[in-house]
Amino acid sequence: MKSNKSIIDKLTALWALNESGLGGFLHVFNSPFTGLIVGGVSILLISLIAFYAKNKWQAILKALVIVLIIKMAVSPYSPFGAYVAVSFQAVLGAFLFFNFSWKGFVLIILGVVTFLESALQKLIILTIVYGAGLWEAINIYGAWVQNKLDFVSQTSTTSFLVTLYLTVYGVCGLLAGLFIKSIIQIIANKPEIDFYLKKESLDAETIKQKLPFKTKVIWVWLTTVAVIVLVFSIFGGPLFGWQKAIYIVLRSFLILMLWYLIIGPFLLKVVRKHLQKKESKYQEDITNAMDLFPYFRQIIAFTWKETKHLKGYARFKYFMANSISNCIHFKIPSE
What's this model's pTM, rounded to 2 decimal places? Predict the structure, then answer.
């Protein structure tokens, strides 16, 4: 078997590429489910690190630090919550793989719990920013729809939506666990053959940056506020509706300003200060990982074309498995 250290280093680089948002995965899968895909790929790579590592706890936590430092450098606009999500995935994965034998049920638990954490984080943020008024607006609109349909339910609209939302994420986590198991089986059964690919110059599409996160937040906030205002204005009564709408606008604006001007920058500063202390220790690993990024982007694009004879789910599965296999067995031509 090849040096497991080399494989783990390449898996760490792949994980960093996935989290930094500059890799081929985000270019290939340009969909509203990018968050689920990125989270799924992350736990796949964490699972593979555990699969190849002898000391699973140490290997995953070392990889986490390297990934966070690269994420900090390449995607400085990433919010504090992104660091929390990545760290949660890694720590839970390290705990599970360190304490339990490497089996399918561990992958399922990792998938379900990490996906539910992601869903709950979003719900908690929505509640903090918009308060109970958001859920009240949803209930008012739901009651209006039920009245129009002559349908009355004892279950509130928010309860139904939250339950449905968590159920979807939980099921996706379950499917992710099963999918990861099949991917790892394919990779483990593939012959360990060196993979060579010449490094080409990066084109404009490859180095294109994502839309800054704060710009996205502004648009999401404006859209959400507009919907809430409309719901309260139309369905909440003339005086009561406008009072609630104005309150939610002011509340959400003040909380967002407090977060992005004071709390968020302070927490990010603490995280970055801690990571900068680790940076010198892992400088060589970080440099080596980032040097692999241009090769990995090309390998992913090459593998996508290589699997064009397959269709649907089969293509997706073998594209993922072959991309990772090619990356971890990749050799620079000069080596």
Answer: 0.77
